[in-house]
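Limitations

Structures in this collection are predictions, not experimental determinations, and the ligand pose is part of the prediction. Treat each record accordingly. The example that follows, with flavin-adenine dinucleotide as the small molecule, is included so readers can see exactly what is and is not provided: the inputs are given verbatim, and the output is the predicted complex.
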Amino acid sequence: MSGNSKEKKIISFLESVVGSENVTTSMFEKIKQSVDAFPYHADKDNLPIAVVLPETKEHISEILKYANKEKIPVYVRGSGTQLIGASRPHTSGIVIFTSRMKSFEIKEDYGYFEAGPGVRNAEAMDMLAEKGYFLPLVIGSKFIASMGGATSNNTSAHLVDTGIGKPGDYILAVEMVLPTGEIIETGTHGLRRPAGTDLTRWFVGGDGLFGVVTKTRMRLVPMIQYAYGIACFSELGPIARGVKRMYLEKKAPPIFTEFLDHNVATIGYTNKGLEPPPGHVIFFVSYDREKEAADKKMEMLIDVFKKEKPIYAHPVTDMDQWKKIWTARESTIPFLMNSLKGRLLVCEIVGNLARFEEAMEEGANFNKGIPYLEDLTNYLFGHIGALAFHPSFIIPPDLGDERMRELSTLLFKREAEFNTKYGTCGGEWGQFSKRKDFFVMRYGEASYELVKKIKAVFDPNNILNPGVLEGYR
Ligand SMILES: Cc1cc2nc3c(=O)[nH]c(=O)nc-3n(C[C@H](O)[C@H](O)[C@H](O)COP(=O)(O)OP(=O)(O)OC[C@H]3O[C@@H](n4cnc5c(N)ncnc54)[C@H](O)[C@@H]3O)c2cc1C
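Predicted complex:
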């Protein structure tokens, strides 16, 4: 059968499952579903044959059974915002776009909610807030990132892991379609997660390798109260020591502890019409069920950071001012790109507590010795309470795609060296694709081979997201 007639057959099968109005072969849509947040274009040889928008788990099951029989690669897309190249197709095939799978049900009598994979984080947040609940997942990309993406990533987002945990700590169960097409449900309808074998764990943070998430069941978390504080320092060392103190002096970990170096803070503050701070800033958000308790935790944190002699450290009670400061942080990436008129290259480095001062210093000098990048400014910001930073670079728009790829590969290599040195790993964007070499470097060939064998058990024909585990350049 010619390539063209094979494609026609695939398209007509997909149309028979979901209706022709839910299968697209338009070049615009193919390209749109083949790009991610990397600052270079779609891989033209890997454009999908078709993009399909299923509505039910049964649709996905039928598509995967067919793809298995015909050995056709299938890529699952939430919103395509992941930053390691795992959401772009690595070979031509079918793209399943989950945007129509928007079921959302709050079951207060059971104490949980269930979300379809196409529900966006911010939509879930708003629906939960209306009923007095909080979504324990606050990503910079929350207005577009999907619940399916968050589940298969198990991303910590801005949240401090030690403060509130990862989404997986709240996920009671998932409904999955296995790569071979069977539909399964894991976990529990109760509020106790299983002891011992819990299939949920294979899929939450499974990097989209072991199945397609069609529903996520998460425990309801009553709305929390916040208290806000900020500190400004002229040097990085005292900030790192302050964060260490927070842990070693056994303070209640905040829900957010964000850091902006002086350059990033200046751009963010200026964009929000605020007077730029005189140094690097760190701001923290304490939380509790009661406001008074949150305020108390905040005061204790400020006392901790005051021991490191900041330029200033104080609570923030003016909510208008707080919103501007928080937006200066939340919008770091667009502010940097707009203000500096370029494209973003970013990675994620994580220190450990014992060597945190050293790690922070190294993070500030992250681009030293990397050709080209060492001549650019390293805009450093991150989730410092989680000991995590994002070294970021704004690349002139006229640098070609191939050069951008090379630079991103160098950046991820450096990220891998850093995280291996400190014995850590990224907490936000998944472990494979651009990070495959890191996985091998950090955990060894035996661990990598083990994941390959596990993948083969779930997906004997390697049709689901092929190329992610193998690595992407
Ligand atoms: C501006 C910006 C800011 C960001 N800020 C943060 C941040 O603060 N913290 C953070 O952690 N991340 C951040 N990210 C990264 C990203 O938004 C998150 O990783 C997010 O969880 C990805 O969700 P998504 O819906 O876009 O997933 P996608 O990118 O579509 O998919 C990610 C992976 O999950 C798989 N997948 C998606 N849906 C399913 C499903 N239903 N079943 C099985 N597998 C699936 C895909 O195949 C892919 O491998 C940011 C990204 C951008 C562009």
